[in-house]
Amino acid sequence: MRTALIQMPVTADKAVNLAVAADYVRRAADGGAQLAVLPEMFCCLYTNEAFRANAEPAGGPVHRAMAGLARETGLWLVAGSMPEADGERIYNTSFVFDPAGRQAAFHRKMHLFDIDVKGGQRFMESETFTAGDSVTVFDTPFGKLGLCICFDLRFPELARCMALAGARAIVTPAAFNMTTGPAHWELLFRQRAVDNQLFTLGVAPARDEQGPYVSYGNTILCSPWGEVLARAGSAPALLLADVDLNQNESIRAQLPLLSARRTDVYRLSW
């Protein structure tokens, strides 16, 4: 599976963001990619005000543009995430489209990023978003893929649920900041890969030091052995990398973590 991890700049102009995303996805297709992944909130700035102003229902302009782009390029497209309006509620939602432009899956961010540090940073996603409540795994010709968004990856139970549901890789549109990113970004993607013996893909926006929310960037791909196979810096980047999902079985045969679980003592249910 040739993957394209798209670390694109994000501006306050939705139309510009959609055009930039389309250019990157077309370049990914030209590079032979079969799966392309955009970052969290690729269509608007990462602020509660921007989330509310840019919220659209499934089937709205952003959704249609991404479906059309998948159909045009013939790629599987994980369309980062967008503010999805559903009645009175807004979700941080990642939509997945197959090469025919059909919606193949969607994930609503389950764990909302709420921090309020006395004398420090305050950011409350729950002031805008409603939390999702589903473990998301979807079928592709390459195998099952798991999908979560940013803060979701910090919860090992969710990653394990996706692995137990058959995911061979976990795809994570994300936007860690300049405090959490240097401390935990690589650590988390490598550890979830090692824990579950699968590939992890983390795709972030490019860093804009002048923006209202400064993304760490560092889009990353890790192997089931915990190796960093590809990684961007802070600037806009298109990473193309081949992923051999058969490595999962090889690693699991060498180190039988999943088969050695004590399900007579502990178990997950969902």
Broad structural category: alpha/beta
| Unreliable segments of 5+ consecutive residues | none
Shape: globular
Specify the number of helices.
6
* Total beta strands: 15
Cα(first) to Cα(last) distance is: 29 Å
**What's the overall average pLDDT, rounded?**
96
Report what the structure shows.
Helix content is 26%, strand content 26%. The protein has 270 residues and is of the alpha/beta class. The strands form three sheets. Strands 1, 2, 3, 4, 5, 6 and 15 form a seven-stranded mixed sheet that branches. Helix 1 (14-30) runs parallel beside helix 3. The chain is globular and about 50 Å long. The two termini are 29 Å apart. Pfam families: CN_hydrolase.
Report a brief summary of the structure.
The protein has helices spanning 14-30, 48-54, 61-73, 156-164, 180-196, 247-254, and strands spanning 2-7, 35-37, 76-78, 82-86, 89-97, 103-108, 114-116, 122-124, 136-140, 143-147, 169-173, 199-203, 220-222, 228-231, 237-242.
Topology readout:
Layout (H helix, E strand, L loop, with lengths): L1 E6 L6 H17 L4 E3 L10 H7 L6 H13 L2 E3 L3 E5 L2 E9 L5 E6 L5 E3 L5 E3 L11 E5 L2 E5 L8 H9 L4 E5 L6 H17 L2 E5 L16 E3 L5 E4 L5 E6 L4 H8 L16
Task: List the defining traits of the structure above.
omega-amidase activity; seven-stranded mixed beta sheet; 270 residues; alpha/beta; 6 helices; C-N_Hydrolase_sf; six-stranded mixed beta sheet; C-N_Hydrolase
